[in-house]
Amino acid sequence: MQITEKDLPRPSRPAPTPRNGVDTPALFATIGVVKQQPELARFRFRATNRWIRGTHSRSRMESFFGAGGEHRHAGDFQYDGDHPAVLCGADQGPTPIEFVLHALASCITAGIANIAAARGVTLTAVESTVEGEIDLRGILGISKEVRNGYQNIRASFRIRGDAPAAKLAEIVEQSRARSAVFDILTGQVPVEIAVDAG
Amino acid sequence: MQITEKDLPRPSRPAPTPRNGVDTPALFATIGVVKQQPELARFRFRATNRWIRGTHSRSRMESFFGAGGEHRHAGDFQYDGDHPAVLCGADQGPTPIEFVLHALASCITAGIANIAAARGVTLTAVESTVEGEIDLRGILGISKEVRNGYQNIRASFRIRGDAPAAKLAEIVEQSRARSAVFDILTGQVPVEIAVDAG
Q: Where are the beta strands (DSSP E) in chain B?
């Protein structure tokens, strides 16, 4: 959501109105409630995955915990992952690391819409291209000097709306600064893996 | 793919055969070629994203560069991302950070299938649940001490096949050790963002 304190309504400002498809009053109200009850901010997201064949598997995102309770998604969200033919896969879905690029683009874009709404800016377009460079000698075990993951990621955003370019650019920057996925990629997340092998 | 040197064929071993839906001979041949021509290992994956409304956006993964040239995916891979209703979104897709969980599960699972095939193990089941904990006070700007991204991720794998439990568990561990997404999450990736604001 990436709203900061200074975006919250103050007596000197007009009341926020819905904009960009964002229910700005509800968003501000949510932030106000979470400020009073910090435990509502604790969320636990989850995905279950099942191997199908070769490098092809399928994940489902059905439910998550947050705001003090369990929630179910409105749709049946299922996603395939696979390796492409050039890597001996069946290309039944994007590669896992392409989903990382989608995660980054959609996270920053969602933040842009929320922040623009909070700042009274009406958007007309937000588009982005995200690219990640990887040297497969890492995961192929050919070189110990090469890391397994992306060596770098570059994202290019194009944003248009009823505000000067500098203000639009600030909205993108604020979204980056508060993006969960940007933090996950540029920071470090402890990952624990448990195995039931029978 | 996550195959290591010790999985490669040696004169003392029988020739690898396809297994688990993995074309093991082609996989070994690919690794052999990349060892001789390291420049073939350089890949650049990409996603394009377009904002739709509110926190809803859609990404496409159409093509990527690798093995010395451009490649197109076999399918039309498009994915929606959104915020859920409890966060004032329209729930038109999973949250961006849920796609990160899918990326981790599908990456390690693809590696498991490849490594098992390389080691002559026939799999019957691989299932996983991946959970990520996040405190939204970070992205809401309510607390400066709370990070924006996941505080931790836990993945539980269940694996079954025609090998002892210890050998199956080793396959999961080897896949983790060579997973691109595991490295992306636990390491740090430089992310550069460019903005065209008109």
A: 42-53, 56-66, 69-81, 123-135, 152-161, 191-196
User: A151, B110: Cβ pair inside 8 Å?
Assistant: no
Nearest one of A79, A134, A72 to A102, comparing CA atoms? A79
In the sheet that holds B152-161, the strands lie side by side as A69-81, A56-66, A42-53, B123-135, B152-161, A191-196
Determine the residue type at B168.
Answer: L
The nearest CA of chain A is from the CA of B124 a distance in Å of 9
Q: Looking at chain B from residue 130 to 149, which residues have their Cβ under 8 Å from any Cβ of chain A? A: 130-143, 146-149
Of the candidates B90, B185, B87, the one whose C-alpha atom is nearest the C-alpha of residue A64 is: B87
d(CA B58, CA B82): 9
DSSP structural state of residue A121: P
Which of A81, A103, A165 is facing B198, going by the closest CB pair?
A: A165
A78 shares contact with chain B (CB less than 8 Å)? no
How close A10 comes to chain B (CA, Å)? 16
| pTM, full prediction | 0.95
Per-residue pLDDT of chain B (198 residues; tens, 9 = 90+): 556 656 666 655 566 899 999 999 999 999 999 999 999 999 999 999 999 999 999 999 999 999 999 999 999 999 999 999 999 999 999 999 999 999 999 999 999 999 999 999 999 999 999 999 999 999 999 999 999 999 999 999 999 999 999 999 999 999 999 999 999 999 999 999 999 999
- Nearest-CA neighbor of B108 among A187, A78, A195? A195
Coil, helix or strand at residue A162: coil
The kind and range of the H/E element at A117 are helix A96-118
Question: A with B: how many residue pairs have Cβ under 8 Å apart?
Answer: 528
Residues of B in contact with A25 (CB under 8 A): none
Q: Would you call B96 and A103 a contact, using CB atoms and an 8 Å cutoff?
A: yes
